[in-house]
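Morning run. Coffee first, then this:
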Amino acid sequence: MNRPLNTLGALAAGALAMYYLDPELGARRRALLADLLRSGLPGERRQAAARSRQARRAYLRATHADPRSDAELRDRIQQRLGRMVSHPGAISVDVDNGVVRLSGGVLAKERDDLLAQVHEMPGVQKLVNAMTAHDNPQEIAARSDPAVSQEVTNR
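And here it is:
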């Protein structure tokens, strides 16, 4: 009983090898197989697209957050800014119905991490980035502190 099963397996392996190692069409078939493996199965693509559509719709849902929770969320974000960026005073935080808007100046190397951490905070429905990224920390200090701004312009 084992021998016919081995023979059938060997025949299937040979047919598969002939199919993919064919000198004329084998390269195309191997490329198609590689693309399929890299991008996932067609059903997985449809599922991923459906999840993406659901996520987009989540932003369109009306939220019914009360002003107290918005104020609490704003306070939590402002408290954590000191641990997330080097110039927390230069960033303004506004919250309306769970939609967080960050504005002001931030270092370019700190921006992406800041946005990711704020977006993951409980209560954040949507995050709006209105911050200006700077490469030089002195640019942020100059914009947030008028005394420093005068000192920089007097040089």
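The helical segments are 2-21, 26-39, 42-60, 67-84, 108-119, 137-144, 146-154. Good start to the day.
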